[in-house]
Amino acid sequence: MSVRQHQQSAPSSLAVAVLTVSDTRTLETDNGGGLVAELLAGAGHAVADREIVPDEPLLVKELVERWIADVAVDAVLVTGGTGISARDTTCETVVSLMTKLLPGYGELFRMLSYEEIGAAAILSRAVGGVCDQTIVLTMPGSTAAVRLAMEKLILPELPHLVHEATK
Description:
Strand content: 15-25%
Pfam family, one: MoCF_biosynth
Number of domains: 1
Pathway: Cofactor biosynthesis; molybdopterin biosynthesis
Keywords: Molybdenum cofactor biosynthesis
Function: May be involved in the biosynthesis of molybdopterin.
Helix content: 40-55%
Family: Belongs to the MoaB/Mog family.
Number of strands: 6
Radius of gyration: 15 Å
Distance between the termini: 14 Å
Structural class: alpha/beta
Largest sheet: 6 strands, mixed
CATH topology: Molybdenum Cofactor Biosythetic Enzyme, Chain A
CATH superfamily: MoaB/Mog-like domain
Order of helices and strands: HEHEHEHEHEEH
Protein backbone atom coordinates (compact mmCIF):
# COMPACT_ATOMS: atom_id res chain seq x y z
CA MET A 1 0.00 0.00 0.00
CA SER A 2 1.38 3.42 -0.93
CA VAL A 3 1.79 6.31 1.49
CA ARG A 4 -1.10 8.06 -0.27
CA GLN A 5 -3.37 5.03 0.29
CA HIS A 6 -2.32 4.88 3.96
CA GLN A 7 -3.11 8.57 4.35
CA GLN A 8 -6.51 8.08 2.74
CA SER A 9 -7.35 5.26 5.17
CA ALA A 10 -6.37 7.40 8.17
CA PRO A 11 -9.08 8.93 10.36
CA SER A 12 -10.27 12.33 9.15
CA SER A 13 -11.09 13.65 12.62
CA LEU A 14 -8.99 13.13 15.74
CA ALA A 15 -9.35 13.94 19.43
CA VAL A 16 -6.19 15.78 20.45
CA ALA A 17 -5.05 16.90 23.91
CA VAL A 18 -3.14 20.19 23.97
CA LEU A 19 -0.61 20.98 26.68
CA THR A 20 1.18 24.27 27.20
CA VAL A 21 4.21 24.10 29.48
CA SER A 22 4.83 27.52 30.98
CA ASP A 23 5.45 29.18 34.32
CA THR A 24 3.74 32.39 33.19
CA ARG A 25 0.94 31.66 30.71
CA THR A 26 -2.78 31.61 31.45
CA LEU A 27 -5.57 30.59 29.07
CA GLU A 28 -5.96 34.27 28.20
CA THR A 29 -2.25 34.76 27.40
CA ASP A 30 -1.46 31.33 25.95
CA ASN A 31 -1.18 32.37 22.32
CA GLY A 32 0.77 29.24 21.31
CA GLY A 33 -1.67 26.75 22.84
CA GLY A 34 -4.58 28.81 21.55
CA LEU A 35 -3.17 28.66 18.04
CA VAL A 36 -2.72 24.87 18.30
CA ALA A 37 -6.38 24.52 19.31
CA GLU A 38 -7.54 26.93 16.59
CA LEU A 39 -5.60 25.15 13.84
CA LEU A 40 -6.79 21.73 15.02
CA ALA A 41 -10.42 22.88 14.92
CA GLY A 42 -9.90 24.44 11.50
CA ALA A 43 -8.65 21.08 10.22
CA GLY A 44 -11.71 19.25 11.57
CA HIS A 45 -10.14 17.81 14.72
CA ALA A 46 -11.48 18.06 18.26
CA VAL A 47 -9.55 19.39 21.24
CA ALA A 48 -10.12 16.60 23.76
CA ASP A 49 -8.55 18.59 26.58
CA ARG A 50 -6.37 21.66 26.99
CA GLU A 51 -4.17 22.36 30.00
CA ILE A 52 -1.39 24.68 31.07
CA VAL A 53 1.15 23.42 33.60
CA PRO A 54 4.34 24.97 34.96
CA ASP A 55 7.78 23.78 33.85
CA GLU A 56 7.76 20.97 36.42
CA PRO A 57 8.67 17.53 35.05
CA LEU A 58 6.42 15.59 37.44
CA LEU A 59 3.35 17.67 36.53
CA VAL A 60 4.05 17.34 32.79
CA LYS A 61 4.66 13.59 33.12
CA GLU A 62 1.50 12.94 35.13
CA LEU A 63 -0.71 14.83 32.70
CA VAL A 64 0.79 13.29 29.56
CA GLU A 65 0.53 9.82 31.14
CA ARG A 66 -3.15 10.46 31.93
CA TRP A 67 -3.83 11.42 28.32
CA ILE A 68 -1.85 8.46 26.97
CA ALA A 69 -3.98 6.13 29.09
CA ASP A 70 -7.22 7.74 27.84
CA VAL A 71 -8.49 5.76 24.85
CA ALA A 72 -10.50 8.81 23.76
CA VAL A 73 -7.25 10.79 23.13
CA ASP A 74 -5.63 10.08 19.75
CA ALA A 75 -2.64 12.40 20.11
CA VAL A 76 -1.00 14.86 22.47
CA LEU A 77 0.51 18.12 21.26
CA VAL A 78 2.81 19.97 23.65
CA THR A 79 4.00 23.54 23.27
CA GLY A 80 6.60 25.28 25.40
CA GLY A 81 9.46 24.24 27.63
CA THR A 82 11.61 23.09 24.71
CA GLY A 83 14.40 25.64 25.00
CA ILE A 84 17.79 25.23 26.64
CA SER A 85 17.36 27.06 29.94
CA ALA A 86 17.53 25.11 33.19
CA ARG A 87 13.71 25.21 33.51
CA ASP A 88 13.14 23.77 30.01
CA THR A 89 12.60 20.05 30.67
CA THR A 90 9.65 19.25 28.41
CA CYS A 91 11.70 17.26 25.90
CA GLU A 92 13.44 15.09 28.49
CA THR A 93 10.16 14.45 30.30
CA VAL A 94 8.22 13.51 27.19
CA VAL A 95 11.01 11.41 25.67
CA SER A 96 11.16 9.36 28.89
CA LEU A 97 7.58 8.23 28.14
CA MET A 98 8.13 7.32 24.50
CA THR A 99 8.18 3.74 23.31
CA LYS A 100 9.24 4.80 19.80
CA LEU A 101 10.99 7.99 18.74
CA LEU A 102 10.18 9.86 15.54
CA PRO A 103 13.50 11.66 14.96
CA GLY A 104 12.33 12.87 11.55
CA TYR A 105 9.80 15.18 13.20
CA GLY A 106 12.45 17.20 15.04
CA GLU A 107 14.83 17.05 12.11
CA LEU A 108 12.23 18.40 9.69
CA PHE A 109 11.07 21.05 12.16
CA ARG A 110 14.62 22.33 12.56
CA MET A 111 15.19 22.28 8.80
CA LEU A 112 12.03 24.30 8.16
CA SER A 113 12.81 26.58 11.08
CA TYR A 114 16.30 27.21 9.68
CA GLU A 115 14.70 28.47 6.48
CA GLU A 116 12.78 31.05 8.55
CA ILE A 117 15.18 32.05 11.35
CA GLY A 118 18.60 30.84 10.29
CA ALA A 119 21.11 29.33 12.68
CA ALA A 120 18.93 30.10 15.73
CA ALA A 121 17.03 26.93 14.71
CA ILE A 122 19.79 25.03 16.52
CA LEU A 123 18.07 26.06 19.77
CA SER A 124 14.92 24.10 18.91
CA ARG A 125 14.59 20.78 20.67
CA ALA A 126 11.25 19.74 19.17
CA VAL A 127 10.77 16.00 19.64
CA GLY A 128 8.12 13.49 18.70
CA GLY A 129 7.28 9.88 19.14
CA VAL A 130 4.81 7.21 20.14
CA CYS A 131 3.87 6.60 23.76
CA ASP A 132 2.28 3.16 23.68
CA GLN A 133 -0.18 3.88 20.84
CA THR A 134 -0.51 7.63 21.28
CA ILE A 135 1.36 10.15 19.14
CA VAL A 136 3.07 12.86 21.20
CA LEU A 137 4.71 15.85 19.50
CA THR A 138 6.37 18.83 21.15
CA MET A 139 7.04 22.26 19.70
CA PRO A 140 8.40 25.57 20.95
CA GLY A 141 5.92 27.99 22.50
CA SER A 142 6.20 30.92 20.09
CA THR A 143 3.28 31.39 17.73
CA ALA A 144 5.64 31.40 14.74
CA ALA A 145 7.05 28.01 15.76
CA VAL A 146 3.57 26.63 16.49
CA ARG A 147 2.30 27.78 13.10
CA LEU A 148 5.32 26.25 11.35
CA ALA A 149 5.00 22.90 13.14
CA MET A 150 1.24 22.70 12.78
CA GLU A 151 0.91 23.82 9.17
CA LYS A 152 3.97 22.18 7.65
CA LEU A 153 4.26 18.95 9.66
CA ILE A 154 1.56 18.10 12.16
CA LEU A 155 -1.72 18.81 10.38
CA PRO A 156 -0.65 17.23 7.08
CA GLU A 157 0.59 14.04 8.74
CA LEU A 158 -1.14 13.59 12.13
CA PRO A 159 -4.03 11.38 10.92
CA HIS A 160 -1.55 9.09 9.15
CA LEU A 161 0.70 8.98 12.24
CA VAL A 162 -2.26 8.06 14.47
CA HIS A 163 -3.38 5.41 12.00
CA GLU A 164 0.05 3.81 11.91
CA ALA A 165 0.58 4.01 15.69
CA THR A 166 -2.68 2.18 16.39
CA LYS A 167 -2.17 -0.69 13.95
